[in-house]
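Retro notes - structure team

What went well: the batch runner handled both jobs without manual restarts.
What didn't: labels got mixed up in the shared folder, which is why I'm recording both outputs here explicitly, each with its sequence directly above its C-alpha cells.

Job 1
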Amino acid sequence: MPPKRLTQDQRNQLRDAAFFLALQEVYTRGDSISTDEQQAMLRNMLLGEGAVEVALLHLLATGQGAFSVLFERTEAGQLQLKPLFARVSGIFVGDQITMKVLERATFKSSNLITGRYILDHDNAVAKSFRKFYSIIFNYIDKETGAIKNSGKNWPEVISDFLDEVHRLMTNEATVACCLLKIVEGPTSPQVT
C-alpha cells in the first residue's frame, strides 16, 4: 500500500503550531519593532535564517523540541505523527512531514512562506484559538486544568475535544497549536 499523503489541512495545522510559537515571541517584543522587523524575525525563526539556533520548522519536520509531544516512535523506529492528533495513522517524519513540505507556500509552488504571509495568517490563528479555548473548557477546568468528566483519561478528553473541533471548525483548524498550548504547562497532562 502506498504511503499516506499529508493533506493541505494537516500540513497547515502543523505549520500553525510553528507559526503560533514564532508569533508568541514576536508579540513579547510589543510595539517596539516595525512590521518589516516582525516579518524578518518570523522568517528567521521559522526558516533558520539569521541568528536563530534551530529553525522552528526544522524542529517540527524532525519531531523535536516543543513539537515532540505530537509524535511517537513506531515499533520499526520511525517517528510518526500521533494518530490522536492527525485523526489517521501513517503520517511519518521524513516521508510526509519534511522541511520541503513545511517551508513551501503551497504544495505545488517553489516559493517559500514569508513573514508577511505569517502575519496575515495570524488573525486566522488567533480567531481559531479563541474558539478552541471556548471548546476546551467544556472538557477541562479553566483554573486547575483538571478533567471535568472524571470518568475519562487525557487521551479520551483530547480525542473528544478534537472530534468537536473538527465537527465545528472544518477548514479552519489550527488543532496542533492548540494542543501544544494544552500540553505545555507544568500541570498539563502527558499525552500518550
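Job 2
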Amino acid sequence: KKMPIIVERNEHSNLLQAERCPSPEFQRSAPKRAAPKKPLRESISFDEVVRIYYTLHVNDMSDEEFFNTFYQRDDFYAMKVDIVRTVTKVTKGMYEGDDEIQCSRGLECRTQSGAQERKENKLRSRNKVFLEQKRQEDCGICDPEALRSVYVSETKQCEQSARDLAKADEAEAKKIQAKSDPAAYR
C-alpha cells in the first residue's frame, strides 16, 4: 500500500504548478447569458498541506494488481443483485434504512414510482422545448437562448431536489468524517 506524500505548499511550490489540462471540464467557461446581473468568477484555492498520491498506470500493473483494482464481470453482477434486492425491499416497504451493507441512495429512479416520475419529468421538459422550437419555426426566428430558458425553467424542480439530496449527503458525510477524525471538526 502506497502512503501519500505530504508536501508543504511553500516548500515545493513548483510541484503545484501543473500544466493546463486539455480536459473540457477544466476549460469550461461560464455559461453565456443575455444580460448577467453580476460577473461570474471562478476561483481556485489550495490547502497549506497537499497530499500527492502516486499510482501505477494501468499499463504498468501486473495482472493481479489489475484485477484487484478494477471491477470484474462478477463484481458488476453482484452489485446488480444487491441493487435489485434493495429496490425490492424499498418497494415493499421492508427497507429498514441505510447501514454498512445496504444503501438506497441513488436508487430512487429504479423503483416503479421513481422511474415513472423521471420519465414524466423528461417528457415534460422535452415537450416544452419542442413547443418552443415550433413557435420559433412558425415565427421564422432562431433563438437558442429562449430554448435554454424554457428547459431551465422546466427543470428547476428537479435541480432543487438534486440540491436538497446533495445537502443531505454532505451533512451525512460530515458526520461520518467527524466520527473518524474528530480533531478536524473542533
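One thing worth noting from job 2: Confidence is low (pLDDT under 50) at residues 5-34.
We'll revisit the folder naming next retro.
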